[in-house]
């Protein structure tokens, strides 16, 4: 089976719009409210003023609150297989990791070393419910959106590779198209990809029905009511 491909014009657009915009546009493309494949709860972003990350998910599960019970050679072999998994698959790609200790995560997988390693393997960011550290020393151009910040790697080790993961209430399968920024992340349903660019542009146009009048000096309640009526007809 051929690797999935994001149309170049859509990818360029997704790399410059925030995740809430994509979230709303998916509902426009679907023609209904109720899209639910997004993270729930506040997350921390290593580069809050930087661009979003977009890519096909490379997934894994980690843990670290307790020392692993498997033999050291098994743990080491799985970590090497983890890097092989991260180096494979379609591009662009992002790492999506579930820390199974959540909500009591203590082990920072994401720091100066791993962000540089993953960037070197061709990934362009990481999304996790777990911990990040080394703020200020993370690889440039490799954003991390994490559930928490902490100082230690503790007993961190890989548990699973390429399996479905859950990050802040959002299920991600390896190969899912993910968009994330300082607001959190979401999974883009494959069936909306052909319509998503037009949906984003339609949503922007709809928002201007309200934003245009609202930014005028003579804006008042009457103008709001008139603009809102037009906005309701245009929105999903």
Could you characterize what this model shows?
By secondary structure, this protein is of the alpha/beta class. 34% of the residues lie in helices and 23% in strands. The protein contains 6 helices and 13 strands. The chain has helices at residues 8-14, 19-30, 72-87, 112-120, 193-214, 221-234; strands at 44-45, 53-63, 93-99, 108-110, 126-128, 131-132, 144-146, 148-149, 157-161, 165-167, 170-172, 177-181, 184-188. The strands form 3 sheets. Strands 1, 2, 3, 5, 7, 9, 12 and 13 form an 8-stranded mixed sheet that branches. Strands 4-6-8 form a 3-stranded parallel sheet. Strands 10-11 form a two-stranded antiparallel sheet. Helix 2 (19-30) packs across helix 5 and helix 5 (193-214) runs antiparallel to helix 6. The chain is elongated, with a radius of gyration of 20 Å. The chain starts with 7 loop residues before the first helix and ends with a helix.
